[in-house]
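One-letter codes give the sequence; each number marks local geometry. A record appears below:


***
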Amino acid sequence: MDIENQALADGHGPNISQAFTINGQPGDLYNCSFGTYKLKVVQGKTYLLRIINVALYSELFFKIANHTMTVVAVDACYTNPMVTDVMVISPGQTIDVLLTADQPLASYYMAAHYYDSLGSAYDATTTTAIITYENAKPSTPLMPNLPAVNDTSAAFKFFSSLTSLVNGPHWAPVPLKIDEEMFLTEGLGLVPCGANNTCGAPLGLQFAASMNNESFELPTKLSMLEASYYNLTAGIYTTDFPKYPPMVFDYTNITNILNKALVMTSRSTKVTKLKYNSTVEIVFQNTALVGEQSHPIHLHGYNFYVLAQGFGNYDPIIGPKMFNLVNPQKRNTVAVPVAGWTVIRFTANNPGYILMNHCATTAEGEAIALALMDCLTDSQVQYSSALKFGH
């Protein structure tokens, strides 16, 4: 809370963390009094590791020395088994992997460090945990060779290679008839500081998470659910959230960085009303207005199909030809590629006021709420800077 309050007061993002952790322990590479998480395994056995990124805003590369992992689920949705030696995980995402203890009796580091797609200041440390084979002689753990922190190609390869396990538990075909379409530019924008304040964001302004130049803020007088129930919506929220950006421009062109005609964002409490059981398709278009960055987007209360991902500006002619309508991955959090786009599709069958937000602190703010049948949960997800897993 202190970090969040300071970020709000200063108008910039949260301070850079001093360490990452695995199950609450930073590991051997830090000069501190905390410890290292250790996992003992038996040679020949296979372990299910459930991994979740609970970092505040850091995407993380994760790797285990001399071992491969088989991804079998993401965000609790089954995938076709995918063998990989490295993965990237965004804030709020979960990944289930099978790890087979098939290496010589020894100790091996699992390690994670930042995936930096922005090129700004970041936590350059690496957290570690140790896998030790039963009956192994004491030895220095082997260290994995993690990707470079700016290896966007490695991140995109992992994210875009996942597919769903068709006919597996809870599988349902992709709905083909689209009832609602939205095109959302998303990223960071800027808002004015309070009276007589100079904030720490560029141009002396304050950061605000932005979708179509709107930055969602919770009402202070009455919850949106109560306002809807008692038909007292006036002064609480409006239903005019824009389904398309207010201005069409070259979204990923870095010459538009800090272009004040485009980057200014409004604080508002706006929602989009969706008809119950309608099929909704959303194009998330990253922008370069405050630098090029990968943005995790989370939809509360839903899983959605990730139909396609790519770089540059979304092309409405070429894009649909890239759609995977057979076995697309299902998620509830997706990382929109740096200077790129992602298309998702879901069925609006969970009534409520559902937040769809950047994985960001309230210093940057939420970006949008989707209204489904006039009910709301105005909860908010916050994450600490850590990586957790169980087995």
